[in-house]
Write a structure and sequence with these properties.
The protein is mainly beta and about 220 residues long. It has a domain of about 150 residues: Pectate Lyase C-like. Helices cover about 10% and strands about 45% of the residues. The protein is built from two helices and 17 strands. It has a 17-stranded parallel β-sheet that branches.
Length: about 220
């Protein structure tokens, strides 16, 4: 009887877990008029990035279907968030970060952010706070108005291309001892300082109007 109960409860647990696993898709969608109770499909999109994350497979992609504000999000697995061609905004809550990246599987963990407008509204702490990740690519983004840094790199490698990082009190990009950054074809303007820390690659970058650190 005891063995029967063990088998029954194990079967019940598998039955409860399976729908959640099967519900994840390689590509999910968000819309300004979506709803997070939806499956995040093309015809039934979610409302926020945070709502789409658990419904997206590791290594998959969240795509923006139409203009909207899609909230702050914490990323703990490899994923792409792509707002290319739309007004895809992420607004930080007061004292928080718009996008936090913290991957436990650092060696394989890769995050790609494209085509996003990330706004601190003068109260958000950091635009993109990278606690740890193997590799992060930030492309075609605008990061504006944070009390800390536009991008804060605690650990991992970060590449920034074709982006504008402006009006951030501490710095455009802050790289701690455990991180590395490469910057290309981007503008760091009107920040406390353009960048600090270990920037390994620096190509075609505009530094202008920052309080300190600009070329004379």
């Amino acid at each position: 009887m005891q063995n029967f109960r063990k088998v029954f409860y194990l079967s019940l647990l598998i039955a409860l877990i399976s729908p959640a696993a099967q519900g994840q898709a390689t590509r999910t969608w968000v819309s300004g008029v979506g709803d997070d109770v939806n499956p995040c499909s093309r015809t039934a999109p979610c409302k926020t990035f945070a709502g789409a994350i658990p419904k997206t497979q590791a290594g998959g992609e969240i795509s923006v279907l139409d203009p909207g504000g899609f909230g702050s999000v914490r990323i703990t697995k490899s994923i792409t968030i792509d707002g290319t061609g739309m007004l895809a905004s992420s607004l930080a809550v007061a004292g928080g970060s718009a996008i936090t990246i913290d991957l436990t599987n650092v060696k394989e963990g890769s995050v790609r952010l494209r085509g996003l407008s990330i706004n601190g509204a003068g109260t958000g702490a950091n635009g993109i706070n990278i606690i740890m990740a193997g590799a992060v690519s930030i492309e075609d983004c605008v990061i504006d108005g944070f009390t800390g840094s536009g991008i804060k790199v605690g650990g991992g490698r970060v590449f920034v291309r074709n982006s504008t990082i402006r009006n951030n009190v501490t710095a455009g990009i802050t790289v701690a001892a455990g991180g590395q950054a490469g910057i290309a074809d981007s503008a760091l303007v009107f920040n406390g300082v353009g960048f600090t820390g270990s920037v390994k690659s620096f190509s075609n970058v505009v530094l202008f109007g920052n309080k300190t650190g600009d070329p004379s």
